[in-house]
């Protein structure tokens, strides 16, 4: 049997990047050979094994043929006669389809090294089209490697457009889409991910509200700003979704199956934004103490002070420069109102609903004081 390092590890090694995980391909072996050598089988759909020492993944060389639509339904063929080249051929991009043998020699039947040097993301073969998730992966690699000058080549863009036009993206499972979006939001240049998706038509299916120029530019500007500040995934997602009007953001966030933390912050931004930017007005309104209190209350500042900070970070990235004062005002209001101690009021004899009202009044009084001082 021969063993090769493959995929992202070879790519990253040639790019001089840190290697996160190593994947290996084994040629000329059967599952029995692997088990006898102490490997543990982990893959249910195809023969993948864990190395007894390193715990790295060793997959028997395989070919794959698509059966149905979407991500499911691959017919996998794995046997000792499957060659390394067969295995590399089923992969997505040429830069991901190289191998390194045990002597350190690079095996590169699809000119991945040439594409690495030319900074090109190119599909290996027409088999790329068998897996629509690859559209998102390619967009994600564009987001990761754009700072080094990589771009998706025209032929691959054309192939992805055809895949989208044929309805391939309609059948992707929301969880897989979310995984790619989340990873893209964390890449160096998330904007490139969404540009590739928009150019291929995939964005019109996944987040159609962001396709119009105005919404797209607003989302990308907000995202860039949050990214510059090294914002969390929640902040990034909320920035992305922020151009969607209130009635659209809820259903879209739901459809994307974003996890709760991401979902809640994005919904919160959508909920408070209308009060901060009254439509049609040139300048943001000066909020009254009652209105400020309502924003703090909607944000549940009282129980979720950390999330309130995230909210302010996102607002600072989406409000116009002329409206930034609101962020400072909210911060001042929050600092003052959160100083109210329910215990102190309880000590004064307040209980039940009267206590609740007393807390509210005291918070309002402090907000009023903060905005007039
Ligand atoms: N691969 C593929 N098509 C997919 C998923 C994976 O062709 N839909 C192949 C690629 O050759 C890829 C390898 O499997 O390099 C390993 O996949 P994965 O670990 O997901 O990606 P990496 O390329 O290692 O990238 P990352 O750095 O993001 O982990």
Salient structural properties:
alpha+beta, 7-stranded mixed sheet, Beta Polymerase, domain 2, binds cytidine-5'-triphosphate, about 50% helix, single chain, about 10% strand
Ordered list of secondary-structure elements with their pairings:
Elements: E1 2-6, H1 8-14, E2 23-27, H2 31-36, E3 40-41, E4 48-50, E5 57-60, E6 63-66, E7 74-77, H3 84-89, E8 99-100, E9 106-107, H4 112-118, E10 120-121, H5 133-145, E11 151-152, H6 154-165, H7 174-185, H8 190-200, H9 203-206, H10 213-228, H11 233-241, H12 246-256, H13 260-276, H14 289-298, H15 305-318, H16 325-337, H17 342-347, H18 352-372
Parallel strand pairs: 2-5, 10-11
Antiparallel strand pairs: 1-2, 1-8, 3-4, 4-5, 6-7, 8-9
Helix pairs in contact: 5-7, 5-8, 10-11, 10-15, 11-13, 11-15, 12-13, 13-15, 14-16, 14-18, 16-18
The protein binds cytidine-5'-triphosphate.
The multimeric state of the shown protein is single chain
Strand-residue proportion: 5-15%
Based on DSSP secondary structure assignment, what is the total number of beta strands? 11
CATH C-level name of the domain at 1-111: Alpha Beta
How many whole angstroms does the radius of gyration measure? 26 Å
């Amino acid at each position: 049997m021969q063993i090769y390092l493959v995929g992202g590890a070879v790519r990253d090694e040639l790019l001089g990047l840190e290697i996160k995980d190593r994947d290996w391909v084994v040629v000329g072996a059967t599952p029995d050979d692997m088990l006898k050598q102490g490997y543990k089988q982990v893959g249910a759909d195809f023969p993948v094994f864990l190395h007894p020492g390193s715990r790295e993944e060793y997959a028997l060389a395989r070919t794959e043929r698509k059966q149905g639509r979407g991500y499911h339904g691959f017919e996998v063929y794995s046997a000792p006669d499957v060659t390394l080249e067969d295995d590399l051929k089923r992969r997505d991009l040429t830069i991901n389809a190289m191998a390194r043998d045990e002597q350190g020699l690079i095996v590169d039947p699809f000119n991945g090294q040439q594409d690495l040097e030319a900074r090109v993301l190119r599909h290996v073969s027409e088999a790329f089209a068998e897996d629509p998730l690859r559209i998102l992966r390619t967009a994600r690699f564009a987001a990761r490697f754009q700072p080094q000058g990589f771009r998706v080549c025209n032929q691959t863009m054309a192939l992805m457009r055809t895949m989208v036009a044929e309805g391939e993206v309609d059948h992707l499972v929301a969880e897989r889409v979310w995984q790619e979006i989340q990873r893209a939001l964390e890449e160096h240049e998330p904007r490139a991910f969404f540009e590739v998706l928009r150019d291929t038509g995939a964005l019109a299916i996944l987040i159609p509200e962001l396709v119009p120029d105005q919404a797209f530019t607003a989302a990308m500007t907000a995202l860039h700003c949050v990214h510059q500040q090294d914002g969390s995934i929640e902040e990034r997602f909320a920035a992305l979704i922020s151009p969607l009007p209130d009635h659209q953001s809820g259903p879209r966030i739901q459809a994307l199956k974003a996890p709760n933390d991401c979902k809640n912050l994005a919904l919160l931004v959508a909920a408070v934004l209308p009060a901060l930017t009254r439509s049609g007005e040139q300048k943001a309104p000066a909020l009254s103490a009652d209105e400020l209190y309502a924003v703090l209350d909607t944000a549940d500042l009282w129980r979720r002070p950390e999330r309130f900070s995230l909210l302010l970070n996102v607002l600072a990235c989406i409000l116009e420069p002329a409206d930034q004062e609101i962020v400072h005002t909210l911060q001042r209001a929050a600092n003052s109102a959160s100083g109210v101690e329910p215990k102190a009021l309880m000590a004064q004899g307040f209980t039940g609903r009267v206590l609740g009202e007393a807390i509210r009044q005291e918070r309002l009084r402090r907000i009023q004081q903060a905005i007039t001082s």
